[in-house]
Amino acid sequence: MTNKLWLASLLMGIFMISCGEEETTKKVDPIDVKIVTVGGDQKKNNSAENFPGIVKPLKSTNLSFQVSGDITKLNVNLGDFVKKGQVIASIDPSIYKEQYEANKAQENLAKENYTRINNVYQKGSIAEIRMIEAKSNYEQAQSAANAAYKNLKHTTITAPFSGYVGNKLMEAGDVASPGMAVIELVDLSKVQSVISLSDGEINNYSTGNSANVYVPALKKEFAGTLTEIAVQPGKQNPVYTAKITVENPNLILKPGMTCSNFIEESDNVTAEKVNSDFIKLPVDVVSVSNDGENFVYIVDEQNNTALQKIVKVGKLYNDGIAIENGLRKGDKVITSGYHKLTNKTPVNILSK
């Protein structure tokens, strides 16, 4: 009997030790995770879309002569500021001056002849047809003189607006032809950030939406307004061009600078945006179960573990996906470390 009791005690001790070891082996270290709170910083971080863009001048034009000739003066250099009406370039005016003087002389002669014949006609001493012919000759000579004067004026290029010389396409001594660009003039008092919108994004915005333009080269952000949206895509790429206008009083924004653009969506674009419970999460956070259901992990604050939540996804955005159902305000959605989790895995929330 004594041996039986001793054996039973030994077996019981072995069993208790093995149970303790099993409990020890089942202990799981918490997984480090990051979170976003629904209705808190989550909404703030996803309230605007981000698009890459490039800075271009709001107003730019190529200036050219309307008559041909040798360029005798080019009064500006790259980067020079010119005022509206300032003479930028000139061609040799001698030929056009001679043409104008000849046509002006013909006009004066025709005018004198018409005046003399008209006086005789008023006295009834000459046929009306002679007066009409004289008048017609005078008007033709007058038109020719006016055209010659305009050609003479076109031997100079003046600035149509105040701006900067963005490019010099010809130099003094070159032969200019009508319509051949000589100078590119740009107005930098305002600039535009040019971006591209896909067919899924084009209807989310309208002119007048506020925007912020961040320029990495300057490490600065500028306030702007969405002022232009194309109604048809480009011929080469199926995207729609949009332009954000930005004030540039210090002229630090230069054409060609790259930038990131954050645009506020229109208030009436979608029901989700109007709804104060609108939720948008990064696409990678949303997983698919074996049953084909979408789910995310949230933090069970009572047990400090991960809890799997089935959700209904909605519209796909440039920076995330809308969650239509399954989450509520205050839920802490796990956005980092979720790929290591299963249901009820202990978690450790990292500070931002």
Keywords:
single chain; 352 residues; alpha+beta; conserved putative lor/sdh protein from methanococcus maripaludis s2 fold; Elongation Factor Tu (Ef-tu), domain 3; Helix Hairpins; six-stranded antiparallel barrel; five-stranded antiparallel beta sheet; 5 helices
Structure, described:
This protein is of the alpha+beta class. Among the domains are: 31-48 and 273-349, conserved putative lor/sdh protein from methanococcus maripaludis s2 fold (Beta Barrel), CATH 2.40.420.20; 54-58 and 190-269, Efflux pump adaptor protein, beta barrel domain (Elongation Factor Tu (Ef-tu), domain 3); 93-154, Helix hairpin bin (Helix Hairpins). It has 5 helices and 20 strands. The chain has a 6-stranded antiparallel β-barrel with strand order 2-9-12-11-10-13. A 5-stranded antiparallel beta sheet has the order 14-18-17-16-15, with no helix packed on it. The relative contact order is 0.18.
Brief summary:
This protein is of the alpha+beta class and 352 residues long. The chain is built from five helices and 20 strands.
